[in-house]
Amino acid sequence: MRKNIVAGNWKMNNDLSQTESLIDDLKNKTKTSNAEVMVAPTFTNLYHAYEALKSTSIEVVAQNMHFAENGAYTGEVNANMLKSVGVETVILGHSERRAYFNETDEMLAKKVDAALANGLRVIFCFGEELADRKSGNHEAVVESQIKNALFHLGVSAFKNIVLAYEPVWAIGTGETASPEQAQDMHAFIRKTLADTYGNDVANGISILYGGSVKPGNAQEIFSKPDVDGGLIGGAALNADDFFAIVNAF
Ligand code: PEP
């Protein structure tokens, strides 16, 4: 049985006191679903969030990392640094990293390797832009993003990978992929994995949907057979909304 997961990506929001207050709100919520819950604060708040949430079932994860082991990479953070503050999972390949920080498939392959080599679990994000969807190229784009960054890996690596399909046109726009569009793409992703790695890998991996998931649409999206949860941006900044989504399974 693959896991249901709801992960909140706080992006570049919340200073320390705002982080504390959101964490307090989250601690007052009750989880009624079987979903694994994760939140991704900024680097500066990771350790504090880890300490504050370690006695709960909410996992603190990182939004990004560099692939190098150490060295002259001003402003960057490596896998070992994340592990040293309690982090066990890192989000890689978010469309904002690709668009604003020029992260390429090649760079992401190196980040995935470094994360896995250091024992981190990876939430690997990918998704097409609006022009790709309009031209009917969305499956080809997604297939190449996945293949370029992940298909050098051996079968066993996929135990530590979660996929997050996030159509760029649906992120932070209020525009959501319809549940059918999400289901179709998730089924396509699973087939792509099955063709190369077999059914055990394809059926065992959790595939999250991301893009304007809200309390009002989460249940319908999560009801689709190949959707195993969500990566949540805006709605993760409010504990009521976030837990309404967590409990939408
Ligand atoms: C995201 O950034 O991963 C995301 C899905 O954002 P939002 O929920 O705000 O669309």
Automatic annotation (TrEMBL):
Q: GO molecular function terms here?
A: triose-phosphate isomerase activity
Which UniProt keyword terms apply here?
Cytoplasm, Gluconeogenesis, Glycolysis, Isomerase
> Which reaction is catalysed here?
D-glyceraldehyde 3-phosphate = dihydroxyacetone phosphate
Q: Which residues form the active site?
A: H94, E166
Q: In which pathway is this protein known to take part? A: Carbohydrate degradation; glycolysis; D-glyceraldehyde 3-phosphate from glycerone phosphate: step 1/1; Carbohydrate biosynthesis; gluconeogenesis
Q: Which Gene3D superfamilies match?
A: Aldolase class I (3.20.20.70)
Entry's localization field: Cytoplasm
Its domain of life reads Bacteria
Protein residues bound to substrate? N9, W10, K11, G172, S212, G233, G234
Q: What are its E.C. numbers?
A: 5.3.1.1
Please give the subunit comment from the record: Homodimer.
Q: Which family does it belong to?
A: Belongs to the triosephosphate isomerase family.
Q: What does this protein do?
A: Involved in the gluconeogenesis. Catalyzes stereospecifically the conversion of dihydroxyacetone phosphate (DHAP) to D-glyceraldehyde-3-phosphate (G3P).
Instruction: Return the PANTHER family for the record.
Output: TRIOSEPHOSPHATE ISOMERASE
* Name under which the protein is recorded: Triosephosphate isomerase
